[in-house]
Write a structure and sequence with these properties.
- The chain has one helix at residues 2-25; strands spanning 45-49, 52-56, 61-68, 71-83, 86-91, 94-98, 100-107, 110-115, 118-122.
- By secondary structure, it is of the alpha+beta class.
- It has two domains: 1-27; 31-122, Beta Barrel (Lipocalin), CATH 2.40.128.
- 15% of the residues are buried.
Amino acid sequence: MRSLLVALVVVAAGIAVLVWRLAATGSVYGLSGIEVPADKNAYVGVWTAPGHVLIVEASGKIHYERHENNVNVTLDVPIQKFSGDDFLAGALFWTTTFHVSQPPHLEDKVWRMTSDGVNYSHP
């Protein structure tokens, strides 16, 4: 009987998180994400900055690495949507927004982009 009660509590907690997520954001994202839209094709590529790597594939998959201050972060997640110049990546209940203050642009024959204060470039 006790294990049934524990299972019910776990299920109720899961439902509560789902309801909270829906109320907070209006959506729950899937595992596959979206392809990069044609008007955002300039985002596709291998972007680097000191201590950072951001790989955006045309399929919408991203690979992100940050290595600074003895902290290493690695993400392999799909893009769920673009909002202006920003893009939201993640799956199910976990997402993160890449805040793009300077979208991809050609400068001195090098592509540049600024996201979350990081100045990325790619050839």
